[in-house]
Structure formats: C-alpha cells, structure tokens
Specification:
globular; 41% helix; alpha/beta; Rossmann fold; seven-stranded parallel sheet; 235 residues; single chain
Length: 235
C-alpha cells in the first residue's frame, strides 16, 4: 500500500506514533521517526527494520525551528523527499482552569501542539511531491471547548484551522491535508487526562491505524481538507 512512500512521523517513540510507524513499515514505507530522545526511538527503529522497512531516527524538538530544519534536512538527505507528514507529537499540559493556568505551561503546550505542526509543514512542503499527504492529529476537544482543557484544547482548535488552510493552499499542487481525531485510546496521555478511567475499556493505538494508512496511501489522493474520527472510519 505504501511502497515507495517516505513518511515522517513525530512523537514516534510510543503510543499512536509508534503504532503508526510499525503499521507504515509493514506496508512498505520508508520511515523518518522523530521524538525528543534518540534512546526512545531506537527500539521502534529496530522493530520497523524487523518488519522490512528502512527507518531513520532523528531526535529533535519540533517546537524549535532550527531542530525542525535539521530533521527535514536529515529526511531529505537520506530519502530525497517526504511523501507523508504525520504531525502526531503533542503535550497534554495541566488540567486546570484558565485563571489558574501557568503562562509558561501555556506557551509550552501551544508551541508543542500548534507551532510544531506549522514549522514542520512549512519545512516539509518544498520537499513534498505531488500526491503528498499531511495528516494532523486533532482531538474531541478541538471542536468543543471543555472546562479545564486549557492550552491543549486551544492548540488543537488551531490545528483544525491550520489543516483547512493547508488544504486550500496546497490543493493545486496535488498535496492534501487532513485531520484525524483518534478518539480515546490506551495511552499514557489518556491515562493522565482521565486517571479514574479503566484503560482496558479503550482500544489500543495498534487497533486504530486504518484511517492513517488510508490517508498516507494513493487511495485517498482526492481527499483534502477533511476531518476523520479514526474509530468510526470505514472504507
């Protein structure tokens, strides 16, 4: 399904990012995997290579323009292009009311969740050929503001807007941009957000990759500016 495609995935060391890396690897993609630490990426690289994929680990802070430039240069230097960009990395931040929200944390979450996809998209687009795909991870709280979701919710609202702008700007170049709400999954971030919840009631990230595979493939070449709920996706 993804033979010949080069996919850059942020937040690839665990959770959904790791699941996507391995799903893409099994479908023949070449991988550029990013997180903040190389040590956390290495096991995923080894698993991807075990599935027959070429994989490059590039540790970087994707909220830093210099780091993002280095990440994209490494990807293009190794593989010559980026066909698929999955903006998956993100921070939850504190679950407190706006009047109690620490300014430093606000800026950190906005940078990680919104500035990073902007920087990555800007850096990748010149190296993305026709047929390219940008996939932005959003949330249930990116279309409905809820109490005590603060900067996380606001940043994801912004990613919804960024997706629509990219879709409009890039359609004439044959590049598409879409958003995916993964829904509740058995991840560390979900556990932090809902500590009272039984994680066994949620699906695993590995069970939630179908729409991401679809959006990376040529099957979705005419799908642009759409928002998907991953757990409701059916071809």
């Amino acid at each position: 399904m993804l033979e010949g495609k080069v996919a850059l995935i942020t937040g690839a060391s665990r959770g959904l990012g790791r699941a996507l890396a391995l799903a893409y690897a099994r479908e023949g993609a070449k991988l550029v995997l990013n997180s903040r630490s190389e040590g956390s990426l290495q096991p995923v690289v080894e698993e991807a290579e075990g599935a027959g994929a070429e994989a490059l680990a590039v540790p970087a802070d994707v909220a830093s323009s210099a780091d993002v430039q280095g990440l994209v240069e490494a990807a293009v230097g190794r593989f010559g292009k980026v066909d698929v960009l999955v903006n998956n990395a993100g921070l939850l931040g504190p679950r407190v009311k706006i009047e109690e929200y620490p300014e430093e944390e606000w800026r950190r979450v906005i940078d990680a969740n919104l500035t990073a996809p902007f920087l990555l998209s800007k850096a990748v687009i010149p190296h993305m050929p026709e047929g390219g795909s940008i996939v932005n991870v959003v949330s249930g709280v990116s279309v409905e503001g809820r109490a005590e979701w603060g900067a996380y919710s606001v940043s994801k609202f912004g990613v919804e807007g960024l997706t629509q702008i990219l879709a409009a700007e890039l359609k004439d170049r044959g590049i598409r941009a879409n958003a995916v709400d993964p829904g509740g999954m058995r991840t560390e971030m979900r556990a932090a957000a809902y500590p009272e919840e039984d994680p066994q009631t949620k699906i695993t990230p590995e069970e939630n990759t179908a729409v991401f595979l679809y959006l990376a493939s040529d099957e979705s070449k005419d799908v642009n500016g759409q928002r998907f709920k991953a757990q409701e996706f059916q071809r």
